[in-house]
Specification:
Elements: E1 2-6, H1 12-15, E2 16-20, E3 30-40, H2 42-49, E4 65-73, E5 85-88, E6 97-101, E7 105-107, H3 114-134, E8 142-145, H4 151-162, E9 166-171, H5 174-183, E10 187-190, H6 198-205, E11 209-214, H7 218-225, E12 228-236, H8 249-255, E13 258-261, H9 264-270, H10 273-287, E14 299-300, H11 304-312, E15 320-323
Parallel strand pairs: 8-9, 8-11, 9-10, 11-12, 12-13, 14-15
Antiparallel strand pairs: 1-2, 3-4, 3-6, 3-15, 4-5, 5-7
Helix pairs in contact: 3-4, 3-10
């Protein structure tokens, strides 16, 4: 079967190689999946470059989110049959097929396509954990989202609106701001037009935001912290801008807001059943029509390296997907 793999650490758009390997065979507790869609996320770029906190040894396929149909099941697997629509993060690969542990496979919500389902595996579960379990977001609160047109940012818009929050989306350029409004944001702020967006966000929020979903770091973090309302929760989700900021603790003290770390991957390692609960909650929301992941125009299997390049160079919006 075909599989895209990196054989040496470096930029994936240069180092991805299309290989022919033996098709996977399901062990007793495993499922083999015919892949229909494979999600690509910024951490996958970092994995290929050797910059991610979890190091990978080449050759490997830098992908973590797969959706498709069951091709075969192991002797000890129950609950899944050939042809079922499923998704997984276990053993994921940009390939014709992948093999996964049955207890790490989930049914695709009926309301979603395979491509949309890839967004639920990392982007939406990370965001659910952030907004519901770390920030305890309440209906009627105001949420500021940085890099809001990206994969996790668009998920944050979708989930915050599903919770009944008011959303202020910060994105780069009028097209991305317009997309954020399309997804459901109540207000859009173009950081290219207004690099220091503090006054604009304060005005839109009536003085400050209750929750900030911050994924960029650097100067963006410092602008975001200055928009926090009394008793707010500033969520640290990542540092996509490449700079890890320091924060003046007196500012958090004087405004009585919390700076809250969001390490979803470590959280499910400590409580594996939390992933089951999160996926069930997301499936219920999807089937109720309350969330619908936004997709960048999908890439073909042959164009997989381009998907990584465009993502790394901030040319994409929504969830980035390679379709087979």
């Amino acid at each position: 079967m075909r599989i895209w793999q990196v054989h040496e650490i470096g930029d994936p758009w240069d180092n991805l190689q299309l290989d022919e390997v033996d098709a996977p065979v399901a062990r007793d507790d495993e499922i083999v999946i015919d892949v229909e869609a494979c999600g690509v996320a910024f951490p996958n770029v970092l994995q290929a470059q050797g910059k991610y906190q979890v190091k990978m040894t080449p050759p490997f396929s830098p992908a973590t989110e797969v959706a498709g149909t069951v091709a075969s099941v192991g002797n000890q697997v129950s609950g899944y049959r050939v042809g079922d629509r499923v998704m997984t993060m276990s053993g994921a690969a940009i390939a014709d097929q992948t093999r996964a542990k049955a207890d790490q496979v989930f049914s695709i919500p009926d309301a979603l396509s395979a491509s949309q389902a890839t967004a639920l595996l990392v982007n939406y579960t990370t965001t659910w954990f952030a907004l519901h379990e770390r920030a305890t977001l309440q209906p009627g609160e105001t949420v500021l989202i940085t890099a809001a047109a990206g994969g996790v940012g668009s998920a944050a818009i979708d989930l915050a609106k599903a919770q009944g929050a008011t959303v202020i989306a910060v994105a780069g350029g009028p097209d991305k701001v317009a997309l954020c409004r399309e997804i459901g944001a109540d207000h859009g702020v173009d950081y290219r037009a207004t690099p220091d967006f503090v006054d604009e966000v304060r005005e839109l929020s009536g003085g400050g935001v209750d929750v900030c979903y911050e994924v960029v770091g650097g100067d963006t973090f410092h602008h975001a912290r200055r928009t926090m309302a009394w008793g707010g929760r500033l969520l640290i989700v990542g540092f996509a801008g490449g700079t890890i900021p320091d924060s003046p603790m007196n500012h958090a003290l004087l405004k009585n807001y919390s700076i809250v770390g969001v390490h979803w991957g470590a959280s499910i390692a400590r409580d594996p059943q939390s992933l089951v609960r999160q996926q069930q909650a997301l499936s219920d929301l999807a089937n109720a029509g309350k969330i619908s992941p936004a997709l960048h125009p999908p890439y073909t299997f042959d164009d997989a390296p381009q998907a990584f390049s465009d993502l790394a160079n901030r040319k994409t919006t929504g969830k980035v997907v390679v379709q087979l």
